[in-house]
C-alpha cells in the first residue's frame, strides 16, 4: 500500500471507566448528538438534563462495572487489538488507528496521529456492519468535520457497510461454530441493536416502502442500500445459510430500545419471554450488529438477558462472542482495506 495511506477504524465509544462521573460525561456526549436523540434541540436538552443525566448514569455505571476487565472496556481493548492485528496482517507499515465517536481515543486524535505519521490519504472503515445515521452517519460526519478543519485536508476514502461481506459473514460463522460446538441449541436468536422507526423512515429511498409490510425487508428490497433493518435481515440470511439453520430454527429481533416512541420490531426481550412457551429450552444468541463485545452484548444479553430467559422457563442461554479481534475478522478487515486501494 502507498506509504502515504493510513487506515482509520471508526467505533462508537466507551466511558473512560465504570465510575459514575465518567459514565455521566460519556452519556452527555453521546446523547447530545442530534443524530442519536433526533428530536428538537430544546426537547433534547430537557430530556437529557432533567430526565436522563440525573438518574441513568449511576445505573449505567453498575452495568459497565459488571463487564469491565482489568485491561479496561472490552469495546476499547478489542478495538485496539483489531487495529494492531490489521496493521500486522497488512504487513507493509501502513498505520492503523482506532477512533471513537464518543470518548477516547477520539476520531480527531486518531486522525492527528495518522497525519503526524505522514498520511495524506485516509481509508476509513466505520465498524458498524449495518448502516444507520445514528452510528455510521454520525461517525462519518465527525470524521469529515475533523478532516475539514485542517489546513491541508487529507483525501478520505470511506468503505461501505459490510453487512453481507463474505469476510464478515465468515468471521461471524466461525465464532458461532466454536461457541455452538458443545451446545445443542434448540433455537438461534439474532439480536440487533434497535432504532426508532422514525430513523428508519428518514433513511428510506422509496417513500412509503419502509415498515409498510411484513415483507418490506425481504431480499431484493429497494431499501437495502440504506435501510438498517433490511441490512440486519440480510446479515441474518447470510449467516443462517452458512450455518445451515432451518427457517424455524432461528429468529431476528432488536434490542436496546429507549423511551416510548415506536422502535423497530420484533423486540428481543419479548422473544426471550415467548420462545420458552414454544418449547425452546436452549437458546444461542448472536449479536451481529456489533463487531466487538460491549455493554449491549455482555451485560444486556449475557447477564440480564440470561436472567430473563431462565425466569421465563428456559434452561440455558449461550451468548456467542462477537468477532472482536479474531483472526478471521482481522483478515476480513485487511481484505476490505486491500479492496479499497
- Strand content bin: 5-15%
CATH class of the largest domain: Alpha Beta
**Number of helical segments?**
12
Helix content: 40-55%
What oligomeric state do the depicted chains represent?
single chain
The coarse overall form would be globular
- Structural class of the helix and strand makeup? alpha/beta
| CATH third-tier fold name of the largest domain | Rossmann fold
Distance between the amino and carboxyl termini = 7 Å
How many domains is the backbone divided into?
Answer: 2
Low-confidence stretches: none
Radius of gyration: 20 Å
CATH architecture of the largest domain: 3-Layer(aba) Sandwich
What attributes characterize this protein structure?
Rossmann fold; 4-stranded parallel beta sheet; single chain; 341 residues; alpha/beta; 8 strands; 2 domains
Description of the structure:
This protein is of the alpha/beta class and 341 residues long. It is built from twelve helices and eight strands. The strands form two sheets. It has a four-stranded parallel sheet with strand order 2-1-3-4, sandwiched between helices. A four-stranded parallel sheet has the order 6-5-7-8, sandwiched between helices. β3, α6 and β4 form a beta-alpha-beta unit. The termini are close together.
Amino acid at each position: 500500500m502507498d506509504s502515504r495511506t493510513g487506515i482509520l477504524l471508526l467505533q462508537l465509544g466507551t466511558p473512560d471507566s465504570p465510575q459514575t462521573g465518567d459514565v455521566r460525561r460519556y452519556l452527555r456526549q453521546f446523547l447530545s448528538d442530534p443524530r442519536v436523540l433526533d428530536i428538537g434541540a430544546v426537547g433534547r436538552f430537557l430530556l437529557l438534563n432533567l430526565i436522563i443525566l440525573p438518574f441513568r448514569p449511576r445505573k449505567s455505571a453498575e452495568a459497565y462495572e459488571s463487564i469491565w476487565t482489568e485491561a479496561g472496556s472490552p469495546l476499547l481493548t478489542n478495538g485496539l487489538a483489531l487495529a494492531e492485528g490489521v496493521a500486522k496482517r497488512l504487513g507493509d507499515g501502513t498505520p492503523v488507528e482506532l477512533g471513537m465517536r464518543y470518548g477516547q481515543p477520539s476520531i480527531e486524535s486518531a486522525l492527528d496521529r495518522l497525519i503526524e505519521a505522514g498520511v495524506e490519504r485516509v481509508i476509513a472503515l466505520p465498524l458498524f456492519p449495518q448502516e444507520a445515521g445514528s452510528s455510521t452517519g454520525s461517525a462519518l460526519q465527525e470524521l469529515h468535520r475533523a478532516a475539514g478543519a485542517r489546513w491541508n485536508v487529507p483525501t478520505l476514502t470511506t468503505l461501505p457497510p459490510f453487512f453481507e461481506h463474505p469476510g464478515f459473514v465468515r468471521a461471524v460463522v466461525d465464532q458461532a461454530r466454536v461457541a455452538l460446538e458443545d451446545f445443542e441449541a434448540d433455537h438461534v436468536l439474532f439480536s440487533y441493536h434497535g432504532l426508532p422507526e422514525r430513523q428508519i423512515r428518514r433513511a428510506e429511498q422509496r417513500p412509503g416502502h419502509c415498515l409498510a409490510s411484513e415483507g418490506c425487508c425481504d431480499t431484493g428490497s429497494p431499501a437495502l442500500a440504506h435501510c438498517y433493518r433490511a441490512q440486519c435481515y440480510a446479515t441474518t440470511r447470510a449467516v443462517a445459510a452458512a450455518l445451515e439453520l432451518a427457517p424455524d430454527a432461528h429468529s431476528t429481533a432488536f434490542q436496546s430500545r429507549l423511551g416510548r416512541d415506536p422502535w423497530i420490531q420484533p423486540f428481543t426481550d419479548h422473544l426471550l419471554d415467548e420462545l420458552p412457551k414454544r418449547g425452546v429450552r436452549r437458546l444461542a444468541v448472536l449479536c451481529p450488529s456489533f463487531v466487538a463485545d460491549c455493554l449491549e452484548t455482555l451485560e444486556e444479553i449475557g447477564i440480564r438477558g440470561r436472567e430473563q430467559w431462565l425466569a421465563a422457563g428456559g434452561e440455558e442461554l449461550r451468548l456467542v462472542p462477537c468477532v472482536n479481534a479474531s483472526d478471521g475478522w482481522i483478515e476480513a478487515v485487511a481484505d476490505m482495506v486491500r479492496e479499497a486501494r
